[in-house]
């Protein structure tokens, strides 16, 4: 029966308002709040779902904590050692803030609960004999500061006194819980008068404790969502579930003390699982007994009714005060341990250096004080609901990241990930991630989105700071696992010319003299494989150890410094030719093997030190790059003869590798307006005017690939067509333009009359026919003998047509079959390309273009 009562009468009863005790009961996800709104059936289902989500994270915590020695930091330590410093640092900060805000949250709630009972009623100067505490914002801040100071003193003494204090509180709470269950059986039916706000007055209603009755149980089975009297908000399944879930987010309290436990790998799994199972059983028992003994009005309109039906009412108040103080203390000491671990790992450099200091007993007292200061600052806000939502979401984000760390370790399949706790799979990790993520957005979509954005901002900031660590990176293990899987799927038998891409092996003698060429080939690879190869001349039998091990780091540092995407492959051989053969045979893996080799040109030009103009190296970089020898002087002996150089080219052609010879790249300037000149005619065989053989098409393809690179997209691609005066040049040009159209290559065609140049060739051929003895010195497949005069004329023709492009592509003919002609072959190439600037001589052996869809 309900009736309207005056405000004066309301002061005699217990007015249903947003009191501290009511808030603590509600935000702790008290079973009577859940049962009162959702009914027994839905409440039991909520418990199952919530504890399944929490249980998945507990399994991940147990797995990680039993996979090696744990140090201070709890969840931060687990995540940072699994996912690296970026993830660890960002989650560490968020976990620190969650514990700090959690400590302030419980202090504020405890203050409101104390003031609710012992404070002077609002609007009055005096109260009952117990209501003696003044009430105002500043007084409540003072009470909170005093309670926080108690927590600080306990945490400053050390983990041992904290453990004793929490154990004492645990005994008190267990005693209170026992009296609650006893009260259900020994206390008789009771009517609890309630006063609810109703406009200008209050509404009096009666809630009933009936004792164990079947009718009461039946009335509480179904859901009956109503307005929450503490907030005035209409309840629903999602809201009640979110509130209930808040009471399940304390599973990391034990792991936060990982640095203070004697055997963390033993204690954390057992303690965490025991705590989860214990609370699950208690929640279900409370839900069932409440449904059997309390009517719906009592459950919905008074969250503190357990005081009225307890055998000794103060027991419940003592239990609430004790558990809340313990929770605040637990969060404060947890925050200090996380801050100490962050400082010790130097994640944020000198900013957290003071937090490293510890007492003689190992207690990080500076971290405790700093955490206390931050909690004190949070107390100034005094906004319980806002802090509660943020704390829960931060905790859920940490739990999801722990599941992610365990999932990554499981998927990486690293042999050293073998936790002694085996009751988990990647399915449980994934379910934990999904569950925590859904709960975050169910509780508060706005706060959840902001928290994720804040975590990503921290992660990116730490990534830019690049904190170094020796913990290992799970990303490398995952990449290895995936790359191995996809390499096995990359079947060379399924290769098709439509999907051909250049895969380059650049042979480098000394990186100091090859910086420009290394950067250029990085552009030319067009998302293909790029390998820097180097041959060290030595025999392993005469050495105490492999010298390449000490050089590898210097080469990798060079790759990072030049910002190129390349692998490094070093080999030891008795000659350069044998070393190049080794690299051509073994470089790459599966379907990713070099199909093109790039060599510097063999000439007498004095090399330049390309590393000197770069920004100064510092520290370790400087020491590492000093291992590269100085550039060779003009008079220094060469370790490669002209004969061996051409033999390397011939070997590559025999092994069906495309070949590029790069000349004068010490003059390469990428900053210039890009221009690409292509001469697809074999100038060493002027009697053949074919523009569509395999080599010419490969040359066109490589020029087109270069023009497709982002930094070269504005380049002018010019194609030079050599024609005889008086010949039908229009037809040749149309054929070439049609070929370019079919190949989808956009280039400007320039016709070049070269009668005077080719006349020198024919003159030499006629002279040779008059001397049959010299006619025998012919290249295979080339029935002509090229004169120096012709080559110089061809060189001048190229310079006249294109004085200074960024890069030139020229046709590279196949080396002669007669090895005695190798020096003559190299001499002809030297004359043809002399003074042309950056030039690529290109020889293709495989089809690389396609006109098919």
Kindly name the structural category. alpha/beta
Detail the poorly predicted runs: 1-18, 773-784
Residues in β-strands, percent: 5-15%
Report how far the terminal alpha carbons are from each other: 83 Å
- The coarse silhouette is elongated
Helix content range of the residues, please? 40-55%
Largest sheet: 10 strands, mixed
Gyration radius (Cα, Å) is: 40 Å
Number of β-strand runs: 13
Number of continuous helical runs: 29
Roughly what is the average pLDDT, rounded to an integer? 81
Strand order of the largest sheet: 6-5-4-7-8-13-12-9-10-11
List the defining traits of the structure above.
AA-permease/SLC12A_dom; elongated; Solute carrier family 12 member 9; 53% helix; transmembrane helix; alpha/beta; 9% strand; SLC12_C; single chain; 853 residues; potassium:chloride symporter activity; three-stranded antiparallel sheet
Could you please describe the fold and organization of this structure?
The protein is of the alpha/beta class and 853 residues long. The protein contains 29 helices and 13 strands. The strands form two sheets. It has a ten-stranded mixed sheet, sandwiched between helices. Strands 1-3-2 form a three-stranded antiparallel sheet. The chain starts with a strand and ends in a 10-residue tail after the last strand. Mean pLDDT is 81; it is low at 1-18 and 773-784.
